[in-house]
Amino acid sequence: MDKLIITAALTGAEVTREQQAALPITPEEIGRAAEECCQAGASMVHVHARNADGSPTQDKEVYRQIMAAVRARCDVIVQVSTGGAVGMTPAERLAPVTLAPEMATLSMGSVNFGGDVFMNHPADMAVFLQAMQEHGVKPELEIFDAGMLTTAHRWLKKGLLTGPLHFDFVLGIPGGMAGSPEALMYLKAQLPEGASWTVAGIGAAQLPLGTLAIVLGGHVRVGFEDNVYYRKGELASSNAQLVARIARISRELDRPVASPDEARALLGLRQ
Ligand code: KMH
Ligand code: ZN
């Protein structure tokens, strides 16, 4: 089994300081959180930018500052979000890809997202993918529901996507697929040949699905974007605390944790 790639989803677009006082918001805070997570075992950070008032932004300059702040402190893989926040335009969401980060997310379809709709028109998805290919950015394909994985198969067959593909199963969003072991097992069984995958369990699903992924040979995403708690009723003290726990569980299960360069090799990123 490959070493475990741990992704820390540090900030997200929706979580607030009221919900989680340790949420990193400014580029400096995000840089520091990335360093702590890297030291705790993360080889990748998934980042969203925020304005100074905490509201979500896809401003390229803020992403540039985040990438510089992370890079100044550690060698972790930086994956930018093209999901942004619900209601942003596709052009807005695409902006950070032009900074040529190592990776970016690419949502493979639309989904109800709590009380909103997270829109991903196929034509916009194709534009996002093309921009990633032009800038040498590896997409992580975000799967919120089973039909999105079927879409990836169709795009692969058409030659729009080229392997090896890397997926993130985001499970437990109200409107998307359940944060259950059965949902994860189903998706894993539908993966294209040679694909790698990670799981981002939402809320209370973060720990059990992460642990299951360790056993099944997948990879794990943890962090405040998906879950602000350490356990029921107890907020996590930092993103790094969540990373350290999943790294500890993986080692206990005899699965070593990948360094950033080992993760780059596993994902076929430029070294
Ligand atoms: N904030 C969500 C609407 C991504 O980063 O690519 C979308 C999201 C996915 O977070
Ligand atoms: Zn995200």
Describe this structure in words.
The mean pLDDT is 98. This protein has helices spanning 27-40, 60-71, 90-94, 122-134, 146-158, 181-189, 206-216, 239-252, 260-267; strands at 6-9, 44-47, 49-50, 56-57, 77-80, 103-107, 111-113, 116-118, 138-143, 166-171, 196-201, 219-222, 229-231, 234-235. The protein has one domain: TIM Barrel (Alpha-Beta Barrel). With 271 residues, it is of the alpha/beta class. It is globular. The strands form 4 sheets. Strands 1-2-5-6-9-10-11-12 form an 8-stranded parallel β-barrel, surrounded by 8 helices. The structure holds (5S)-5-amino-3-OXO-hexanoic acid and zinc ion (ZN). Residues 12-14, 81-83, 85-86, 105, 107, 113, 118, 142 line the site of (5S)-5-amino-3-OXO-hexanoic acid. The site of (5S)-5-amino-3-OXO-hexanoic acid (KMH) has 13 residues, from strand 6.
Total strand segments? 14
Name the CATH homologous superfamily: Aldolase class I
Assigned CATH class = Alpha Beta
Most strands sheet: 8 strands, parallel, barrel
**CATH architecture descriptor text:** Alpha-Beta Barrel
Instruction: Write the element-wise H/E pattern from the N-terminal end onward.
Output: EHEEEHEHEEEHEHEHEHEEEHH
Oligomeric state of this protein: single chain
Number of domains: 1
Shape: globular
Query: How is the largest sheet built, in terms of strand order?
Result: 1-2-5-6-9-10-11-12
Broad structural category = alpha/beta
In terms of per-residue confidence, which ranges show pLDDT below 50 for 5 or more consecutive residues?
none
The helix content is 25-40%
CATH topology assignment: TIM Barrel
**What's the rounded overall pLDDT mean?**
98
Strand content: 15-25%
N-end to C-end Cα span: 21 Å
User: In angstroms, what is the radius of gyration?
Assistant: 17 Å
Q: Helix tally?
A: 9
Ligands: (5S)-5-amino-3-OXO-hexanoic acid, zinc ion
